[in-house]
TrEMBL record:
This is 2-oxoglutarate dehydrogenase E1 component. It comes from the Bacteria. Belongs to the alpha-ketoglutarate dehydrogenase family. GO terms for cellular component: cytosol; oxoglutarate dehydrogenase complex. InterPro entries: 2-oxogl_dehyd_N, 2oxoglutarate_DH_E1, DH_E1, KGD_C_sf, ODO-1/KGD_C, THDP-binding, Transketolase-like_Pyr-bd.
């Protein structure tokens, strides 16, 4: 039989099987040595097939014509020797063998032995049975080609051996999902890693002892706490102890592969165990927290299972810095915070691929499937502004979710991890009662992330021995599950018995390990050695310069006019042969005149000069948001686009990246359409980098509503709870211009309600000099506090809101701006109007039109912390005035009124009366009808300036 006949008889070169042939041919093109000799010889011949135009085909010929040639040859029987017909029966069975292999790779996870409780019968999956393909018992000992698998180095295997290898690899303690990945190289990498070991790790006796020690410590801590601190919440890890073995492998294997830092985000379950048994927190310190010890320096503090921690550990590969992020009860909200912190650390190191800093996210099964921020964070993974080189996800899957409800109500997907398929991340489900398999897939997953810089998931299927918390009685609603759990001896006992049966341990050794660890806990000593107490990480951020600084409103933010002009010329220049849009060209020309002092500065130029002077001084700037490059209202144009560019990936120029040769980085990102995840990311970034002005800008201020959890749980309370300073800046467009309820209010009242203990800053600047100074002040002062800026919309191009260049040189940010009209005589003033934001200009115009000289107008530019001295100094100028009226655009139950009235009252003179002029209370932020908006706006201005004020008045 010729080689062609043999190839035909023992494979399936037929049109209906083109996908298999195509895959072999792709492997051949990547590496000719990766396919069997017969296939390689055959493909070598195909390299010289005539092309359609009569020329000889070349090595890089597209494979589609080759596959088509297979089909044509099959139809014409062209490559069968004249002397012999092909054995179609054998060829057909070979097809079925390949289909069986593909079925196990795709569906094997569904048949895997993943549940430690064994509560359900394994499903019937016909595609995994040879009989589905018409194969019989007599076929099992036939030899078939196995060149498309990695079970053996030989080209062939009996079907019996092949079937056993498939079941051992894909249907035992590990269930792998990876066939949804479109990257062929990634799929083959996973296939080779799994199939070359038959899915079974080969660990030494010493390694097995080490794994048992990890389980012993995990179980031992939980049982110790359960008996010593009865009834206290700790969110026990019992039932999921293999997680500790998994995390230990993450830390050590990451160290072996050059990772220098790991940042971990996780919710409550297992957190205390992680702190003690992985990070080396002293058990005695944890016990003190159970006994009510407070952390000094914190105004409020937090419960012990929310707190973060960091340590430097000695691993198999050297020192590794491990940080556990602080996390509130909103579970998965920590995901983007971790990613932002990691990105900041990577940027600081110049770690562009993410080889040195690794994010690790630990999830609960119900939260992973149920919380939308998970999807939002996954969507950031491969984007330019937010990618971190891939995240290692570990799921502590207790199979019941957040409480003792029916598991059928926890999700609509087959697996809790199905959401990650949106980014084609592989998932390795593993039985938590097989700790060796857990460690094995953890190493596999980490290697995948380091190799492909892509997200990957380890889903540890385990159980929860106790309730959602230790005060719960889960058997009330889950009697069947908890009967099974009650009979389960525990993962440590299962594994210890296995090692004794294997002869790895003597009969009494596991019990001795338990006693030894118990004694360590009694003594309050750690079991993690060594924790490196004197290790110095040269990339660590020193926050000491920002701690303990007293609040001040002032900072020297002025820049000499000559320097402003020089910088202004740089940021308005474009490269030669770069064609900007005519509207942008006019804007650049106008800004050039502004920099020369020939025109007043508009808002966009005030911003640009603030950014440019900061990066020139060594402060980085990072601004992100859905329209940040151009600006939602087309006022920024930080990114210029060549109008003659021919490709999507080129043709942009960012002037602020070209201020000087030695400047700090300037980054501007048009974010994905997300608020919660993006704001969480930027909070994490700012918390890890105090030397970068980190800004998140809402497309409209109202949209910050979608990130309220980040505001409440991190931005406004993080310092009080955890002592974490953060200089994050929020820019929230705010203003009533008749755009309806969703585009008017950034909810000033919500932020002011959260203000206390100088936790954040809330400002509403009204001209370009003010935005210049407040942005520079944010970095120059020696402390870091979140800054919330209510930015304008109509004022962006309002000539009244412009500033002379000299105001950027000689002035500073003014928390209160007094009366600006020199014609207003203080002794003649009968009423003082106090306001914030755009309404100031409406009042000024109306006063001018009405020729009112008995009304003074004060602007509060910084609402919190309220500048009492500055405000009092301005108000005292009008001691003869009997009326002080707060004026706002917002409805009475919104805006700043309820917050600001007591500050105004406190600074009023005896006999003065306090009033309110604005919209009436409303359940909606603004009306949707333009005519009604204009009617309301006219009414509130008229009320403020009425000859006799009508409305609420409070006399001091």
């Amino acid at each position: 039989m010729s080689s062609e006949i043999e190839l035909q008889s023992n494979s399936y070169l037929f049109g209906s099987n083109a996908p298999y042939v195509e895959e072999l041919y792709e492997s051949y093109l990547d590496n000719p040595g990766s396919v069997a000799d017969q296939w390689r010889d055959y493909f070598d011949q195909l390299q010289h097939l005539p092309a359609s135009d009569g020329r000889e085909a070349t090595r890089d010929q597209a494979h589609a014509p080759i596959v088509e040639s297979f089909a044509q040859r099959a139809r014409a029987n062209a490559f069968v020797a004249r002397a012999q017909e092909p054995d179609l029966a054998v060829a057909g069975k070979q097809v079925y063998v390949q289909s069986l292999i593909a079925a196990y790779r795709s569906l094997g996870a569904r048949f895997a032995e993943l549940d430690p409780l064994k509560r359900h019968d394994r499903p019937v999956i016909p595609e995994l049975d040879p009989s589905f393909y018409g194969l019989t018992e007599s076929d099992l000992d036939q030899v078939y080609a196995a060149s498309n698998s990695y079970f053996t180095k030989a080209d062939t295997m009996t079907m019996r051996n092949l079937l056993k290898a498939l079941r051992d690899t894909y249907c035992r303690s590990v269930g792998a999902e990876f066939m949804h990945i479109s990257d062929q190289a990634a799929k083959r990498w996973i296939q080779e890693r799994l199939e070359s070991t038959i899915g079974v790790p080969a660990y030494s006796t010493e390694r097995k002892r080490y794994i048992l020690r990890q389980l012993t410590e995990a179980e031992g801590l939980e049982r110790f706490l359960h008996t010593k601190y009865v009834g206290q919440k700790r969110f026990s890890l019992e039932g999921g102890e293999s997680f500790i073995a998994s995390m230990d492998e993450v830390v050590n294997h990451a160290g072996e592969n050059g990772v220098q830092e790991l940042v971990v985000g996780m919710a409550h379950r297992g957190r205390l165990n992680m702190l003690v048994n992985i990070m080396g927190k002293m058990p005695g310190d944890l016990f003190a927290e159970f006994e009510g010890k407070h952390t000094e320096g914190l105004t409020d503090g937090d419960v012990k299972y929310h707190n973060g921690f960091s340590s430097d550990l000695s691993t198999r590969g050297g020192p590794v810095h491990l940080s556990l992020a602080f996390n509130p009860s909103h579970l998965e909200i920590v995901n983007p915070v971790v990613e932002g912190s990691v990105r900041a650390r990577q940027d600081r190191r110049g770690d562009e691929e993410g080889n040195e800093v690794l994010p690790v996210l630990v999830h609960g099964d119900a939260a992973f499937a149920g919380q939308g921020v998970v999807m939002e964070t996954l969507n950031l993974a491969q984007t330019r502004g937010y990618g971190t080189g891939g995240t290692l996800h570990i799921v502590i899957n207790n199979q019941i979710g957040f409480t003792t409800s029916d598991p059928r109500d926890t999700r609509s997907t087959l697996y809790c991890t199905d959401v990650v398929k949106m980014i084609e991340a592989p998932v390795f489900h593993v039985n938590g009662d097989d700790p060796e398999a857990v460690v094995y897939v953890t190493q596999l997953a980490l290697d995948y992330r380091l190799q492909f810089h892509h997200d990957v998931v380890v889903d540890i299927v385990c159980f929860r021995k106790l309730g959602h918390n230790e005060q719960d009685t889960p058997s009330l609603t889950q009697p069947l599950m908890y009967k099974s759990i009650g009979k389960h001896p525990g993962t440590r006992k299962v594994y210890a018995d296995k090692l004794v049966a294997q002869g790895v341990l003597a009969e009494g050794e596991p019990d001795q390990l338990v006693k030894d660890y118990r004694q360590l806990l009694e003594d309050g000593q750690r079991s993690i050695e060594p924790v490196l107490t004197d290790f110095k990480n040269k990339y660590a951020t020193d926050w000491s310069a920002f701690l303990g600084a007293k609040w001040t409103d002032q900072a020297d933010t002025g820049i000499p006019v000559a320097e402003l002009t020089r910088i202004g010329e740089r940021i308005t220049a474009v490269p030669e042969n770069f064609t900007v849009h005519p509207l942008v060209s006019k804007m650049l020309n106008d800004r050039r005149l502004m920099a020369r002092g020939e025109h007043k500065l508009d808002w966009g130029m005030g911003e640009h000069l603030a950014f440019a002077t900061l990066v020139s001084s060594g402060y980085g700037v990072r601004i992100t948001g859905q329209d940040s490059g151009r600006g939602t209202f087309s006022h920024r144009h930080a990114v210029l686009h060549d109008q003659k560019r021919e490709r999507w990936d080129d043709g942009t120029y960012i002037p602020l990246q070209n201020v000087s040769d030695s400047q700090a980085p300037f980054t501007v990102i048009d974010s994905v359409l997300s608020e919660e995840a993006v704001l969480g990311f930027e909070y994490g970034y700012a918390s890890a980098d105090p030397h970068t002005l980190t800004i998140w800008e809402a497309q409209f201020g109202d949209f910050v509503n979608g990130a309220q959890v980040v505001i409440d749980q991190f931005i406004t309370s993080g310092e009080a709870k955890w002592g974490r300073q953060c200089g994050l800046t929020l820019m929230l467009p705010h203003g009533y211009e008749g755009q309806g309820p969703e585009h008017s209010s950034a909810r000033i009242e919500r932020f002011l309600q959260l203000c206390a203990d100088n936790n954040i800053q809330v400002v509403q600047p009204t001209n370009s000099a003010q935005i210049f100074h407040v942005l520079r002040r944010q970095m120059i002062r020696p402390f870091r506090k979140p800054l919330v800026i209510f930015t304008p919309k109509s004022l962006l191009r309002n000539k009244d809101a412009t500033s002379p260049l000299s105001d950027l040189a000689t002035s500073h940010f003014l928390p209160v701006i007094g009366e600006q009209d020199e014609n207003i005589v203080a002794a003649d003033v009968k009423r003082v109007l106090v306001c914030s934001g755009k309404v100031y200009y409406d009042l000024v115009h109306a006063r001018t039109e009405g020729s009112r000289s008995d009304v003074a107008i004060l602007r509060v530019e910084q609402l919190y912390p309220f500048a009492h001295k500055a405000f009092q100094a301005e108000l005292q100028k009008y001691s003869a005035a009997r009326e002080v009226v707060w004026v706002q655009d917002e409805p009475q139950n919104q805006g700043a009124w309820f917050y600001v009235q007591h500050h105004l009252y406190e600074n009023m003179a005896e006999g003065q009366r306090l009033g309110y002029a604005g919209r009436v209370a409303s359940g909606s932020p603004a009306v949707g009808y333009l005519a009604k908006h204009q009617e309301q706006q006219k009414a509130l201005i008229e009320a403020a300036l009425a000859a006799k004020f009508k409305g609420y008045m409070l006399t001091k």
